[in-house]
Every structure is written in structure tokens, then in C-alpha cells.
Amino acid sequence: MNIENELFKLQDKKYREMQVGIIPNVDPETIIGIRTPELRKLGKKLYKEGIYKEFINDLPHKYFDENQLHAFIISEIKDYDECLNEFNKFLPYIDNWATCDQPSPKAFIKNPDKLINEIKKWIKSKETYTIRFGVGMLMRVYLDDNFKPEYLELVSKIRSNEYYVNMMIAWFFATALAKQYDSTIFYIENNKLDTWTHNKTIQKAIESYRVTDEHKNILRSLKR
User: Fold this and answer.
1) How far apart are CA 103 and CA 146, in angstroms?
2) Is the pTM of this model over 0.85?
3) Rounded-to-integer distance, Cα 121 and Cα 101, Å
4) Mean pLDDT value of segment 63-68
């Protein structure tokens, strides 16, 4: 199978125009324009048929959509160690928020005790999207049954000048305010985040339907 040809068969030019507008740091010439359900479907097909290894070993890819497909393919890997190995090989090539935020591998979700050690490594990286991926996985996997207050502390200590890192930190804390308010409000009341991230966290929490009106009023009073 020629994967590049298969991708162009799925091209949606109107969708491409929208993507070009919302992913400004990606070269528009590299965006084919394929809707996420189509990419996910193709990724599942390639994985199921076992015809993906040459593709995922051919890095860096030329097209943004190839990176998206790559993320969906390796998210299908059921063995935790294999999935982790492939993500660690792929993370240095992620260069935008969309590719960073799409994957949510079941192998990771099912192994929180192992994954947390990798997250601690990722968030100490110097690479923008490796940090963002780590915080994103912490948000997805560890704010419900797997929650520990120490995870809030891990994220609060991250300091970056990168917009896409700080936006993910704000998203993490806004979600934590919705799910673990009593533990999280301490970080807002005591100004544990930089000013921009602090205020963006409050903004996102106030916009969330999962945060109560009572808590929103408290958060409004804590803007800096």
C-alpha cells in the first residue's frame, strides 16, 4: 500500500482550509486536509493488517497528516512497552498541538502505575511538545480514580516561555478545578502558577460547565 496515495484520496479541501487557520505553526504546504475519523479509521486498518512498520520507521514524515496517522497507529499498540517505545521515538518529531493532543493510547490508560514514571521524564524535557504530551496524559489519566495531590505539584513547578506548554498547564489546572477542586484551589489561592497561566486557568475554569457557579465566583475573585 502506498500510504501517501491513500492519504490524498481522503483529502477534504474545505477541511484543509480550516486546519491551516488553526494550526499556524505548521507549514500549510504540508497539510493535506483529512478529517480525524478518516485518519483514525486508516490507522486502525494499517495496524490490524500489520502493514504499518515501514511507515512508522520512516521518520521524519513529509506531511502533517502523516504525523497524525502515525500517532493513531501507535495508539493502537496493545503492549505497553512496545507502545511506549514507539511514542518515545515519535515524540521528538511532534511539532504542533494537534498531533500532540490527539493520541490517547489504551495501553497507557491501562497502566497508570508504569506510565507515571514516564510522565515525570516527559515534563522535564526541553522539548515543547514532549512536555505538553506529558501534562496532557497526566490530565487524561490521573485526575479521576488515579488522582494524587502530588501530581498538581509536579505540574505547578513547570516553567516555560512556550505558549503551547503554558496553555496545556492552564487546561490541566482548569480540569483539576472541575474534578479535584478542594486539592487544586490551593494552587490558585497561593499563586503557585505564573500570572499568565494563573489567569488562563481561571478563564478556562469559568468557561467550563463542570465547575460550579459557587466555585466560579471564588475564582473570579482570585484573578491577578
Assistant:
1) 19
2) yes
3) 18
4) 97
